[in-house]
Amino acid sequence: MLLPTQLPCRQAKERKGPCPHLVNGRQCRSQSCRQRSYHDYQQIQWWKQNPGKSRCQKGSNCAHLQTRTCLWTHPPGDQALQAQLKELMTRGLTYKETLDTTRLLELSQGFISISDHCDLASFNKVSSTGIAVPGCPPRFTPLSEPLVLECDANNKSLCFEFPRYTHPFEPLFRSVAVMSPDVNIFESADIVSNASNLRKLFHILAHKSMRAERYDVEMRGNTLLLSRWNEDPSLNDSLGHGAGFERKTCRYPADDEEILRRSLSHHRVVAYRFGGLRCVVQSEVDAYYCDCEKRRSTLSPHAVPFVPSGSPSPAIPTPTSGSPTRKHSISLSGPPSKQRPELAFAALRLDDPGDSPTFTPAEPDNNPTLPSPPLTPTSPLHPATDTILQHASAKIHIHHLGRNIPSPCLIEVKTHKALNTPLFTPDAQLYFSRRTQLYDAPYHDKGVFLPGPGLVVQDRTGALRVWEREEQETLRKLAALLKMVRDKVREMVEKGVERVGLVVCQGEGGSGRVVVEVYDRGRGVGLVPADV
Fold first, then answer.
1. Could you tell me where the beta strands, DSSP code E, fall in 378-493?
2. Are 375 and 344 in contact (CB under 8 A)?
3. Could you give the residue ranges of the DSSP H alpha helices within 324-471?
4. Distance of alpha carbon 391 from its chain centroid, rounded?
5. Do 189 and 277 form a contact (C-beta atoms < 8 A)?
6. Mind listing the pLDDT tens digit for each residue in 149-174?
7. Is the pLDDT of residue 52 over 90?
8. For residues 80 and 502, is the Cβ–Cβ distance under 8 A?
9. What's the confidence (pLDDT) of residue 291?
């Protein structure tokens, strides 16, 4: 099949379409929308009575239906499924109350930024009962020739059945126990979450997403566990070409271990301070893009602390006695006291200041932070060993293999339709997962990807600094909401409620208010095992 080396004239011309807000009977206040879409009333009516009558091929899974910006027609069945989503989310839950979100900006003052970023652990998901630690992401190869891909929804070679663990956060805690055994998360962190949860909450608070989201929440000590809803029917949906593009461009070298090559995803666990909260965040990694592995051993079964590229390796002391997964509390100073230990975020920082993937805030953060003592690296597990951790509620198999890839080498791979503005920019995802490298590939009609001089790996460090300044209002709301939820869940635990559900959505009638409903999930399996 011959592939075009350049777009046909019909596609190469800049095409303006109707404003999606006006097509859906809403007001449009976006200046950028006026530059890329027409807003004339007669043209909008012509669109709705002619091309817009065609049925949307994505059906009820259409992301634009979720945000009320689809240009095509959806039958009542599609719209009914969307309306039923919230009912499905709350089935089996007991409503408790609705949080007051009208004062979020008042509750969060000062410049909000992320600071004291450090890497704690990494792992690959091998199966629903196994992980590889430290694991390794696949290697990314930029597009060098034209590529034609089916839409992910029609691509039968893709697998969307990902591992589901009995306790969703167990892989996170097990990997941290192996790679950072001196870190006791429950003694040190305020919030444990997935980066995707923070991103989705951000988009809701920014009124960029109309879709309701549910989160499962628990409190362990003073630490809030914020997990996605694992029964969400949209978790395995992929509406574009992104999964197929990753399959073609992100691959493991042939000399990597078979367990890594057949693993389903790689994850990084990081710690940082956000809006005065000490956060431990897990995020999925698409790939790495660098030549660091050429300067390292090909594979290392050791679970060693992360070492920055170009920085001296820390000395490994004499192995400590006891279990390698044993956790130690970290005191602020001197002997143990009643004061709450702090996670040594700054001491675990990986990168030299000049190479750090964290973003220096343009304005000072007014939230005071407590000093943290340095951590002494502990001895890794012996090489070529696997560990089976078993207890009453679950069993997980840890394969000790992989290699450490420095954070600056990790890359986010995105795709979007050419000449169309993406529904969401990748900035929030990059920000909360602490990525700076981005490869954003446009595709044309029939899933055609074309290489070109403009299709390169981008360094988004500077752009994310700008984004952080421009999004201060929403970031302040997010920090305040997280604190509010943490306080409320702690209060509910004191009243005997063990497991909490949150449903977050936009208010009715375009009020600009975000609704956060709190539910009792009842008893059941926890987000982490009892022995963690």
1. 386-390, 395-402, 410-417, 437-444, 448-449, 458-459
2. yes
3. 427-433, 461-470
4. 29
5. no
6. 988 777 766 765 678 899 999 999 99
7. no
8. no
9. 73
Give strand pairing partners of 498.
none
* Rounded Cα distance, 487 and 495, in Å: 13
Cα–Cα distances in angstroms (integers) from residue 272 to residues 50, 61, 259, 368, in the given order = 52, 34, 30, 14
- H or E stretch at 259: helix 258-261
Determine the Cα–Cα distance for residues 131 and 96; give it in Å rounded to an integer. 37
Residue 345, pLDDT > 70, answer no
| Residue 33, helix vs strand vs coil | helix
CB 121 within 8 A of CB 175: yes
What is the separation, in whole angstroms, between the first and last Cα of the chain?
55
Query: What amino acid is encoded at 446 in this protein?
Result: K
Task: Return left, alpha or beta for 25; rule: phi > 0 is left, psi -120 to 50 is alpha, else beta.
Answer: left
CA distance 520 to 504: 15
Cβ proximity of 144 and 499 under 8 Å: no
> Is the omega angle on the peptide bond into residue 134 within 30 degrees of 0, that is, cis?
yes
The CA distance from 30 to 489, in Å, is 37
Beta-carbon contacts of 452 under 8 Å, excluding residues fewer than 6 positions away, are none
